[in-house]
From TrEMBL:
Subunit structure: Homotetramer.
Domain Aldehyde dehydrogenase: 39-498
First-tier enzyme category under EC: oxidoreductase
Keywords: NAD, Oxidoreductase
Oxidoreductase in keyword set: yes
Species: Winogradskyella vincentii
PROSITE patterns: ALDEHYDE_DEHYDR_GLU (PS00687)
EC number(s) recorded for this UniProt protein: 1.2.1.3
Family recorded in the similarity comment: Belongs to the aldehyde dehydrogenase family.
Name of the protein described by the UniProt record: aldehyde dehydrogenase (NAD(+))
Keyword Nucleus: no
PANTHER family, per database record: ALPHA-AMINOADIPIC SEMIALDEHYDE DEHYDROGENASE
Length: 517
């Protein structure tokens, strides 16, 4: 391999994952090809070139689609528990490669090694979940109004599921979709973020090995690579009944329109603007840990990152000082070095957005609590390392209303009852994750009630970030309304059919309609 950084065993990890210096970016199982221009992936950790990936052309895409279409014909006929067995083997392979893949996630995306391992663990968890689910894809039975009739519903595979994913969860989001879609009998075609294409290659290599070991058709898992234009090949394509897209609200609005225009289904997992409400009854120590991890974890680049802290006026100064003190202890640097808490932003464009947010909040009348800034010098050569910042602000500031994908935390003060805090929390366009820190049962229940948080995720005495795979994951409003992962999220990957069977010799019509011949 050429020009690959040598720190923290990255070369070994890449070797274990079968990543080459130049990789074919289109893959249909074991068959790899591509004819488009190279995408070079540079690490935000040290600025080194990790490897390159050839992007997918229209012709390459057609080959992948042909392969997926063919694979679906046989895959859907395999009993679901047997498909579950393939997902079980995939989970086992992920266990074997956990350290290597976790390291690559950290190096290509910039999150801490621990968070990289956590992301692979989520992949393993969803595989385990899907294996059990493969025996539980059940519908309901109903009583027919007609004598001698039986009525029930069943779920059938959809076909080809298109997956578009964001850079910040470069491997887990794919598996949340694929593990479920596969046991449901669908085949998948994935376009990872153009900012993290090497993670995509590594994942595809892992599943390709499992498919090959089981002599299964190519095309159950296809990979395509490139920017939004490659994504659009899927959103426009009537052969793709479901497009699951994770990324910004801006992207989601375009994808939703394209897919709806052909009456396809979309599952949208978009931006958040998540808040923690801190009431006078909050445990301040827990609040500080939850808020700091939520705001600076993954360098503020989680869809569930804490962006707003809504604090009651009676404890405002105390919480502000405690959080600001905790920020002094943060070590910023190479995320593969486990002594560091905060790694880099994904690229220098993200650094510009971070700088813009800090300027804008002051322009709008905010006040700095913890100063930000871009780090330079030894260890920070990539130009992507920034200081997590805190500013006092108002909820109606334009910048506060927007998701800035960086470690910028806004402090907002509320007075009076918890209802006022809930109004502030709900007073944004996004609706992903929310939390309340309180030991007061009434406040907690109000927050969780139908008049409480309007988000897809609402936590009590836990921060906004870090979800488990067992629950359905997703958010409301501009977050897109999709649900992935646990609970009954599997239903989106299937089509529902209602069946009525008449086991008599008569043909009575529903609603008692008479039609005598
Ligand atoms: P992005 O919107 O820039 O890109 C996401 C993906 O969409 C990429 O693969 C990109 O190539 C593709 N894309 C962009 N425009 C497209 C188009 N017109 N047609 C088809 N595909 C298109 O997002 P990003 O910067 O990679 O990720 C950060 C964003 O993702 C944040 O807003 C974050 O909140 C969000 N996110 C949401 C969730 C969630 O579950 N709600 C999870 C992770 C990230």
């Amino acid at each position: 391999m050429e020009a690959v950084a040598t720190n923290f065993g990255i070369n070994d990890a890449l070797k274990q994952l079968g990543v080459k210096a130049i990789n074919e970016g289109t893959s249909t199982g074991s068959n790899n090809f591509s004819n488009g221009p190279l995408i070079e992936s540079y690490s935000p950790v040290d600025g080194a070139l990790i490897a390159s990936v050839k992007s997918t052309t229209k012709e390459d895409y057609e080959k992948a689609m042909t392969s997926a279409t063919k694979a679906f014909k046989s895959w859907r006929l395999m009993p679901a528990p047997q498909r579950g067995e393939i997902v079980r083997q995939f989970g086992e392979k992920l266990r074997e490669k956990k350290e290597a893949l976790g390291k690559l996630v950290s190096y290509e995306m910039g999150k801490s090694y621990q968070e990289g391992l956590g992301e692979v663990q989520e992949m393993i968890d969803i595989c385990d979940f899907a294996v059990g689910l493969s025996r539980q894809l059940h519908g309901l039975t109903m009583h027919s109004e007609r004598p001698g009739h039986r009525m029930y519903e069943q779920y059938h595979p959809l076909g080809i599921v298109g997956i578009i994913s964001a850079f910040n969860f470069p491997v887990a989001v794919w598996s949340w979709n694929t593990a479920l879609a596969w046991i449901c009998g669908d085949v998948c075609i994935w376009k990872p973020s153009e900012k993290t294409p090497i993670c995509g290659i590594a994942c595809q290599n892992i599943i390709a090995e499992v498919l090959k070991d089981n002599d299964l058709p190519e095309g159950i898992s296809c990979l395509i690579n490139g920017d939004y234009k490659v994504g659009e090949m899927m959103t426009k394509d009537t052969r793709v009944p479901l497009v699951s897209a994770t990324g910004s609200t801006r992207m989601g609005k375009i994808v939703a329109k394209k897919v709806a225009g052909r009456l396809g289904k979309s599952l949208l997992e978009l931006g958040g603007n998540n808040a923690i409400i801190v009431t006078p009854d909050a445990d301040i120590k827990m609040t500080v840990i939850g808020a700091v991890f939520g705001a600076v974890g993954t360098c503020g680049q989680r869809c569930t990152s804490t962006r707003r802290l809504i604090i009651h006026e009676s404890i405002y100064e105390q919480v502000k000082n405690a959080v600001a003190d905790a920020y002094k202890q943060l070590r910023i640097g190479n995320p593969l070095d486990e002594n560091n808490h905060v790694g880099p932003l994904i690229d220098t464009d993200a650094v510009e957005m971070y700088k813009h947010a800090l300027e804008k909040v002051i322009d709008e009348g905010g006040k700095v609590v913890v100063e930000g800034g871009v780090l330079s010098g030894e260890g920070y050569e990539s130009g992507c390392y920034v200081k997590p910042a805190i500013a006092e602000a108002q909820n109606d500031f334009e910048i506060v209303q927007h998701e800035t994908f960086a470690p910028v935390l806004y402090l907002l003060k509320y007075t009076g009852d918890v209802e006022n805090a809930i109004d502030i929390q709900n007073g944004v366009a996004q609706g992903l994750s929310s939390a309340i820190m309180t030991n007061n049962l009434r406040e907690a229940e109000r927050f969780l009630s139908h008049a409480g948080s309007d988000c897809g995720i609402a936590n009590v005495n836990i921060g906004t970030s870090g979800a488990e795979i067992g629950g359905a994951f997703g958010g409301e409003k501009e977050t897109g309304g999709g649900r992935e992962s646990g609970s009954d999220a599997w239903k989106i990957y299937m089509r529902r059919q209602t069946n009525t069977i008449n086991y008599t010799t008569e043909l009575p019509l529903a609603q008692g309609i008479k039609f005598d011949l």
